[in-house]
Specification:
The protein contains 16 helices and no strands. By secondary structure, the protein is mostly helical.
């Protein structure tokens, strides 16, 4: 039975700081840190049951876990395959050979899953549903259904969720496939486009549930998924850029000897590569933990001031010119994408920050960025409300209104907890907890758009 003090926010903050220190050791992965955290909490519980105070129990338990530098070196020896660079380890190290062999087996598994996802994507094409304009929305609606079930299966296997998880996960994907394929959408209508945009959000949340390995119960594991998502985007973009260059070069050199591979590239290489890359990028994040954790915070620090200046310039230009926001479908999508990118910057900056560090200038800059995004979101909501009152309800306007209300709630929470953190009234753990607890709200709203909007608006 867990000691009642184990839920104390001060203790949670200490453990978060301890985990952040461990995470900076490149050889330690999220599974390893979770296992060490479990040992730490068990030690703390036993020590508190013996009569020790909370702080004393934490210090002694952390000491019993072992010297962290030693732990890191031991993990580096056993799990060298996780390191970004090759380390000079003795070739006779049995543990290393076992770990590398396991990593190679997992790589072969993920390649097999990537090929299976790409093959699944091509089944409709081979059945006669080509990429013509009349069918393109079919592939857009189903794109995530071709790859994410395989990714969910991979994480269910890796986290040892057991076959019982299939009874939960399979119906989710079957239900999603039925909704997006049996609904009588008007071709390229508003509700179909909204479904294309929102279904990936719903299914990515399902990926997150399996990624955590504890069905979304742990704050720390939810935070790990936030980090994973940011790193995944970076790896996927890098793979896409590299794959695009490789495809262009290959088609170019073949054209020099009279072979036109453009059709092959468009119909096979590019779509299959895009689907399979989802699996490969996810595996790279898992296998190379620690490498991108140094890249993503740098990108966040570069783009945070740039986006803050961009939003500030937007507000000033709007006030000086007196021009309001033009609420059209394309503008709504672009506007929400901008706010989503800003939110992503904040979200990943929070997830990669050392929770034990004192407030600094970058935290102040983050609050400024959140404040500007909050102001812009309020302006957009006001414009949307005016537009709806003048011209009535449409699927795009209601979806945009709902999304901006969701963003408003998220940004308000960020602003509040950042403000309290900078004033020393709350620890950084409170901000992290808000972030991870709010994630399901995005998925719930996306599910509403996918499931309810089409019939409510007549599938137009």
């Amino acid at each position: 039975m867990v000691n009642k003090n184990m839920n104390d926010p001060t203790l949670d903050a200490q453990i978060m700081e301890w985990k952040a220190f461990l995470s900076r050791h490149a050889a330690l992965g999220t599974d390893d840190i979770a296992e060490l955290e479990d040992h730490l909490r068990n030690h703390i519980e036993n020590l508190q049951a013996a009569g020790l105070a909370e702080d004393e129990a934490f210090i002694i338990a952390a000491k019993r876990i072992g010297d962290l530098d030693t732990v890191s070196k031991e993990y580096a020896s056993v799990y060298s395959g996780r390191l970004w660079k090759n380390l000079e380890l003795p070739s006779h190290t049995t543990g290393t050979e076992i770990a590398i062999g396991k990593l190679q087996q997992e790589f072969l598994l993920i390649i097999g899953l990537a090929v299976a996802a790409a093959a699944t994507f091509k089944i409709p094409y081979l059945a006669g549903i080509d990429y013509a304009d009349a069918n393109i929305t079919f592939y857009l609606r189903n794109a995530t259904l071709f790859c994410l079930p395989f990714l969910v299966g991979y994480f269910a296997w890796k986290r040892d969720l057991g076959l019982a998880s299939a009874r939960i996960l399979i119906p989710v994907f079957i239900g999603a496939a039925l909704f997006v394929n049996l609904y009588p959408f008007e071709r390229e209508g508003s509700t179909e486009i909204l479904t294309v945009i929102h279904l990936p959000i719903v299914l990515w949340f399902v990926v997150g549930i399996t990624y955590t390995g504890d069905w979304w119960q742990s704050d720390s594991r939810r935070m790990d998924f936030v980090r994973f998502s940011g790193e995944f985007v970076i790896y996927y973009v890098l793979i896409a850029i590299g794959g695009g260059v490789l495809t262009a070069v290959t088609t170019g050199i073949f054209s020099m000897i009279g072979f036109d591979l453009e059709l092959v590239a468009v119909e096979w290489i590019i779509p299959c590569g895009a689907i399979g890359a989802v699996l490969v990028a996810s595996w790279l994040v898992e296998a190379k933990q620690g490498a991108v954790e140094n890249m993503a915070p740098v990108l966040a620090r570069v783009f945070t001031p740039l986006f803050a200046l961009s939003l500030l310039a937007f507000v000033v230009a709007m006030l000086v010119s007196g021009n309001g926001i033009d609420i059209q479908r394309e503008m709504l999508i672009a506007f929400d994408l901008l706010l989503a990118v800003v939110l992503g910057l904040v979200l990943y900056s929070v997830s990669s920050r050392d929770p034990g560090a004192q407030p600094g200038w970058f935290d102040t800059l983050q609050l400024v960025l959140v404040g500007m995004a909050l102001l812009v979101d309020v302006i957009a909501l006001s414009a949307m409300a005016t537009r709806i009152s003048e011209f009535g309800l449409t699927p795009n306007r209601i979806a945009a209104l709902g999304e901006n209300i969701v963003l408003l709630g998220s940004l308000t929470g960020y602003a509040w907890y950042y403000f309290r953190f900078l004033r020393g009234e709350d620890g950084f753990a409170a901000l992290e907890k808000w972030q991870t607890n709010y994630i399901p709200v995005y998925a719930i709203w996306a599910a509403v758009v996918v499931i309810l909007f089409p019939p409510l608006f007549g599938f137009v």
